[in-house]
Amino acid sequence: MRNWTYEIYNEENYIKEYDYLYSKLSKARREKVDRANIDSRKAEELMAGSLLEDMLQQELGSQVEFEYYYSDRQKPFLKNSDLFFSISHTAGVVACGISDKWIGIDVERRGRYKRLVAEKYFSEQELDLLRGHREDLPDDLNSIDDKNYSAAAYAEEMASDVGAEATKVDLVFTVLWTAKEAVAKCVDIPVVEVCKKYDMSYLLADLFSGADSMSIELEIQDWDGKNHIIAVESEIFDDFAISVAFEI
């Protein structure tokens, strides 16, 4: 069994439905909403929790009180159930997947290409794809001095936008990044480890031939050294991209 979906929301709907959606959430998901310290984050937590628990209720029954626990690496699991789940959210979009095997999902807005992040974490083959659509991407992969590339610089890169127009180089970046995040969530390993070990450039083989969805299979090693066959599916929308990784 495997199912995933997404939901687009706006501020008007969020405000109008807040009390109703909040009242339906489990205690654990209400606490996540309460801990969010800015309105946009509260909206994401509320909408993501609502989508997740609606899907779980459809699968398990409406009378279930959902409880969660976390792995040492902070992957969430559902107590007293064999179901796996994953959620992701960004401004105005939430996504959720549930499965009877490991699953991970990630959604990102387009228009947020990060040159420094790509240079630091992408494979040579992945960077070749970016170079093919942006002439000023440096050939020297050592152009970033790791000692000087601070956490603050990384945060600044991730917080900035490339602009209103989602370029081809941005599309390559966004699809690759969501795929890496989805795999990391699925197998419960750091995304940096996924970046270092697994090249996903061939996921984009059909990207510019008119395809709006792509898929690959990878053999991924978990934290215990066990191998898993993971399928990765990516879909492109006007304003965002979603990738789902699941064990097969």
Per-chain topology:
Layout lengths: L1 E7 L2 H14 L2 H9 L3 H22 L7 E3 L5 E3 L5 E7 L2 E7 L3 E7 L5 H7 L2 H8 L19 H9 L8 H20 L3 H7 L15 E9 L5 E10 L3 E8 L1
Antiparallel strand pairs: 1-5, 2-3, 4-5, 6-9, 7-8, 8-9
Describe this structure in words.
- With 248 residues, the protein is α+β, with helices and mostly antiparallel strands.
- It folds into 2 domains: 2-100, Alpha-Beta Complex (Ribosomal Protein L22, Chain A), CATH 3.90.470.20; 110-228, no CATH class.
- Helix content is 39%, strand content 25%.
- The chain has helices at 11-24, 27-35, 39-60, 115-121, 124-131, 151-159, 168-187, 191-197, and strands at 2-8, 68-70, 76-78, 84-90, 93-99, 103-109, 213-221, 227-236, 240-247.
- The longest helix is centred in the N-terminal third of the chain and has 22 residues, at 39-60.
- The chain is globular and about 50 Å long.
- The termini are close together.
Number of domains: 2
Low-confidence stretches: 135-166
Q: What strand order characterises the main sheet?
A: 6-9-8-7
Give me the Rg, rounded.
18 Å
Q: What structural class do the secondary elements suggest?
A: alpha+beta
Q: In sequence order, what are the helices and strands, one letter per element? A: EHHHEEEEEHHHHHEEE
**Mean of residue pLDDT?**
84
Indicate the overall shape.
Answer: globular
Q: How many helices?
A: 8
Measured between the Cα atoms of the first and last residue, the distance is 11 Å
**How would a crystallographer describe the biggest sheet?**
4 strands, antiparallel
Helical fraction: 25-40%
The total strand number stands at 9
Strand content: 15-25%
